[in-house]
Amino acid sequence: MKKHTVSHPGVIESEAIAAIKQWSWPLEHTSDLEPLMKRIGNARIVMLGEASHGTHEYYAWRARITQQLIREKGFKIIAVEGDWPDCYRINRYIKQYEKSGTNAIDLLRSFNRWPTWMWANWEMVALIEWLYEFNRPQPAHKKAGFYGLDVYSLWESMEAILDYLRKTDPLALTAAEEALHCFEPYRQEEGRSYARAAQMVPELCQTEVVELLKTIRQKMPSYNSDPENVFNAEQNALVTVHAEQYYRAMVEGGPHSWNIRDRHMAETLNRLLEFHGPDSKLIVWAHNTHIGDARATDMSADGMLNLGELARLDHGEEGVVLVGFGSYKGQVIAGRNWGAPMQKMDMPEARKDSWEDLLHRSGPSDKLILTEDLRQDTFIENHFDHRAIGVVYRPAYEPYSNYVPTLLPLRYDAFLFINQTNALYPLHISPDGHQIPETYPFGV
């Protein structure tokens, strides 16, 4: 998508600020979400974004919205930017399956893949325990579920398959063991060693994982266990196929590996909806870069697509509501490099003339915007920068990076702006005085 230049920035800014003042709703209490609930209406898919993976308010407001969607609109599927095996353990716990754990804290402490804080945090403890209590009186078909959309868990998914087949189909173990044996030499470095080896042998383990998926799909009718366990086994097999493709594509650079990842997310989303039936409704938790329509950014010009775009194409814009998040300044949990220790970092004031700056200058308060109100020439002909912070963050580079040129009214259907944010509360760091933070149990 071409980025239009702004010929008279002062005029454009004043028009933008005036429109934001006119069309924004105050955002302080859960009751202030009512305009958003009306906008969601009968949509089947609601995607809740975040501008970082380490901000308390994003998790807290997403939890409030999620609880309201479950209670009032019959949503029963939560699908997040997390690994399938880890998230499926949460699913088993909140549905009170046998031997599924005794509390959310112990469950989340087992999340050991970096960045651990992304899901192992006190905000998630509160939501998971709320889901557990909500599900307690519900019949099986009305219990809310929790699932992972991501593609990183190649080895964890393969080990889950092996464990499942040992119990249900020892004769099918051969295909799984052959696939695992092929990958075993490359287990270190989260797939990077496999990616380097694949430069020399492009189809290194591709045959093995495809055969594994084929075997499991052929055998599915003979598996007489809990149907969700069967779905879980097939999904783990699908993860191994797509993870192998993802790690192989890493060496190429460019958009290819990104697109493999988001296509996997979209396929998993569609599989979850199909599995849960024609009346099922699904909530996504993922970064803005995944849920905000890529066509309204410069991502599209770079050959990148994303989950929000694919969902709109698959389910129609009337069936999907995309909700973005952002903030002007505050603190955030992140690492300075991939795999580095997590830190609480100061997030500086937003870049001048960015969306976050314009929202702040329209009044330094938290706001909800329904973006259809902003679909006027000022906003759909001019890209404004929109901040995006990942798990790796270096605040000193803020003026030169971390922004995506965005047509906000086309990228999202709604936007929650938090003027000043606080850092997430990671579970692996003891809170002050070894006490649970005062935010727990948020929303229970």
TrEMBL record:
Which Pfam families does this chain map to?
Erythro_esteras
| CDD domains assigned | Ere-like
Which SUPFAM superfamilies does the protein's record reference? Answer: EreA/ChaN-like
Q: Where are the transmembrane segments?
A: none
Query: Please, which domain of life does this record's source organism belong to?
Result: Bacteria
**Cited PANTHER family:** ESTERASE, PUTATIVE (AFU_ORTHOLOGUE AFUA_1G05850)-RELATED
Instruction: From the Swiss-Prot or TrEMBL record, give the protein name.
Output: Protein-L-isoaspartate O-methyltransferase
Organism, scientific name: Flavihumibacter stibioxidans
Q: What lineage is this protein's organism placed in? A: Bacteria, Pseudomonadati, Bacteroidota, Chitinophagia, Chitinophagales
